[in-house]
Amino acid sequence: MSFDGSKAFVAAIAGPNYPAPVKAVETMQKAARLNRDEAIAIEGETFTYCAKTKTAECLVQVFLGDQYLKKVSKTVTKNAKPTKYASVLGAGIMGGGIAYQSASMGVPVLMKDIKTEQLDLGMNEASKLLNKEVERKKMTTEKMAKVISQITPTLSYSDFSNTQFVVEAVVENEKIKKSVLAEVEKSTSPETVLASNTSTISITRLAEGLSRPEKFCGMHFFNPVHRMPLVEIIRGAKTSEETIAQAVNYANQMGKTPIVVNDCAGFLVNRILFPYFKGFVHLIEDGVDFQRIDKVMEKFGWPMGPAYLLDVVGIDTGVHAAKIMADAFPDRMSYLTKTILDVMYENKRFGQKNGLGFFEYEVDKKGKPVKKVNPSVYELIKPVVKNEITVTDEDIIMRMMIPMITEASRCLEDKIVATPVEVDMGLLLGLGFPPFRAGALKYADSIGMKNLEEISKKFHSIGHMYEFTPFMKGMAAENKTYY
Ligand SMILES: NC(=O)c1ccc[n+]([C@@H]2O[C@H](COP(=O)([O-])OP(=O)(O)OC[C@H]3O[C@@H](n4cnc5c(N)ncnc54)[C@H](O)[C@@H]3O)[C@@H](O)[C@H]2O)c1
Asked: CA geometry: angle at 290 spanning 352 and 353, to 5°?
């Protein structure tokens, strides 16, 4: 292949935000006809150029962030007992995924549900994932059979006394979760750690009915479990450090990256995500096309724009969680009027799960959902549009990103996590924040707090989520950075 052809090929894969791969091809092209010393000089120049880019600085930060998380994990789990046998309650999307992940990483697991058909579905999902691994030649059929034999479906608690760790992943209903947790506590040994995979319910509240609340924590996996690297380990008011250590250890055994966070609505990642969604809702109200918002945010570096992301998360799930976030943080997360999300929900547009959301989805030959736009969706949007405002692409970015940055800063200020690195790595691993920007707080640093404060003032009339906290104002006044 000619150099120009390979340059175009490499550029298409690397994208405009990662200059090094194309520079590498250019360097080979320039150096091809030179002698060794001349070629080394050119290589040196290119290396210096790449090393000084913002992308390199951010990618180095991501590497350091990853090392930091590993170091914290190692310290936390110094005296932790490994989980030899685990169990999962609920064989749904998440329970099935957690059971698969545990078994495929060598920790056998009991998977309990109240319905036989759900257990069958859970086992089928695991088999599908394993078959794909075999098709891709990443796993032998012997290994596949071994993994499947490590998941034991059950309708009873009879073998639970042997498990050291239980992950609860039943429906998102506080009453049901509390009763299931109380039940399982009675069926396990006093040493067993219980963890809930709730995405919104307070861990401190879920612990209320337990006789061993110190043995209980949150363990928030992301969907799809086998792909998403992050697990938030949530410390409730009564969770012991020993329990946290065992949960971090089990997450590591499953090949995941755990981050320990203190209990609050949305924990770390969803708490920061919902103000970003609110930025999207208000842009729609100001007459900005959802397809344009998605394109701008994808160009910014997100793997998918907010409309597409809401479709993937599930608009019903989004509406439910947005209400919990609004109750917890009314000053900046509540809505005064019906939003586009409410309208979508009322019209049963739940997103990818039923093929209808902002976009519409059809399954292709490989079973993958393909999105397309049905112009009729604009008829649903019309009634919630309150203004017709002209915005620049930069306005869209700032209106989406400032609420995310201010909430990220609040999480740090409220000590939900200890460091900016944990905030930013949580966003990278849990949401796919663009690595070449290294996270919301690193991105804020790159703009400069003084600069950002000035920009944010332009949007104060939209809502409190655009207002700097006193801490952020102090940083701006003193020209400080998070890193
Ligand atoms: N789906 C996601 O994207 C996602 C992501 C992170 C966390 N979560 C959380 O994970 C949990 C499960 O979500 P899901 O999407 O897998 O739900 P789901 O509806 O797919 O599965 C729930 C399962 O729980 C079973 N169940 C109900 N009551 C039970 C009981 N008493 N004992 C045992 N099993 C019981 C149901 O039969 C069902 O199989 C929820 O708390 C949810 O908030 C979901």
From this structure: 5
pLDDT in tens, 222-277: 999 999 999 999 999 999 999 999 999 999 999 999 999 999 999 999 999 999 99
pTM above 0.90, yes or no: yes
The string of pLDDT tens digits covering residues 272-297 is 999 999 999 999 999 999 999 999 99
Ordered by start, the domain boundaries in the chain are 3-74, 83-262, 270-349+384-477
Determine which residue's CA is closest to atom 8 belonging to ligand 1: 199
Give yes or no: 220 in active site. yes
Could you tell me the maximum CA-CA distance found in the chain, to the nearest angstrom? 76
Give the Å distance between the CA of 195 and the centre of ligand 1.
13
CATH number assigned to the domain with residue range 83-262, chosen from the 4 options 2.60.120.460, 3.40.50.2300, 3.40.50.720, 3.50.50.60: 3.40.50.720
- Return the CATH number of the domain spanning residue range 270-349+384-477: 1.10.1040.50
Token match 């150029």: residue? 49
The H or E element containing residue 441 is helix 440-447
Calpha distance 41→35 (Å, rounded): 10
